């Protein structure tokens, strides 16, 4: 998007009431965003101390909810889909099927709902950007987070497809792959202490400014990203000949 990727832009962030989503809102405001639609299932939890923040109800599991939010945010230019869910679950657990369906509905179908309802708006507003939070678990599965890892692998695949199909309308797509980050979700899942959510927000802004598809925000993510880079450049980001 270039050096003025954020200044005076209208953004929307899902899952903006806490953790990474809240940090993304704060970073956008600090970089001069003109307006930020901060969405959550409970919009009353949104921090509205800055007048540029517009709280908005959005439930990623509901197409009607996403559609209603899109109808309200017709001026949006940057959509950051941060909302997601995580269950501690191995493939052998009795609740693995139920958990996988739940996580897939939010982490994968939620992304598709957002893309389908907001892509036309981004097109009408000049292209803009769609950012998806995907996790290092989309690249490396973890046995105790098996269903989550699988759902994030699927969301990463959908993100790659979105990058291809939205390119023609001038929409930049960014795939973000954090490792452990200090959030309530990570704490409740028993993940080790990680870096602050602000590193994810900073990585997103950097990717938008420099037109990058992949973003690896923290130390673990960068380790994965460095190993993955040759494959990403030669396969994921390349134009393969059929």
From TrEMBL:
This is SDR family oxidoreductase. Belongs to the short-chain dehydrogenases/reductases (SDR) family. Gene3D superfamilies: NAD(P)-binding Rossmann-like Domain (3.40.50.720). The keyword Oxidoreductase applies. Signal peptide: none annotated. It comes from the Bacteria. Keywords: Oxidoreductase. NCBIfam families: PRK08264.1-6. GO terms for molecular function: oxidoreductase activity.
């Amino acid at each position: 998007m270039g050096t003025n990727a954020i200044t005076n832009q209208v953004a929307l962030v899902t899952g903006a009431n806490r953790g990474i989503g809240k940090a993304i809102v704060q970073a956008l405001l600090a970089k001069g965003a003109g307006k930020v639609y901060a969405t959550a299932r409970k919009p009353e939890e949104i921090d509205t101390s800055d007048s540029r923040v517009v709280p908005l109800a959005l439930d990623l599991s509901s197409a009607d909810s996403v559609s209603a939010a899109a109808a309200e945010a017709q001026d949006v230019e940057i959509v950051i889909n941060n909302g997601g869910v995580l269950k501690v679950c191995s493939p052998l657990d009795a609740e693995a099927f139920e958990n996988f369906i739940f996580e897939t509905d939010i982490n994968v179908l939620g992304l598709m709902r957002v893309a389908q309802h907001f892509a036309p708006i981004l097109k009408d507003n000049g292209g803009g950007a769609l950012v998806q939070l995907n996790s290092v678990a989309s690249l490396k599965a973890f046995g105790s987070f098996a269903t989550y890892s699988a759902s994030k692998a699927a969301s990463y695949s959908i993100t790659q497809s979105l990058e291809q199909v939205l390119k023609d309308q001038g929409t930049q797509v960014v795939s973000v792959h954090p490792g452990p980050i200090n959030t309530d979700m990570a704490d409740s899942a028993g993940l080790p202490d990680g870096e602050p959510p602000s590193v994810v927000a900073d990585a997103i802004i950097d990717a938008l400014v420099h037109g990058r598809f992949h973003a690896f925000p923290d130390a673990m993510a960068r380790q994965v990203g460095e190993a993955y880079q040759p494959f990403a450049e030669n396969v994921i980001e390349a134009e393969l000949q059929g």
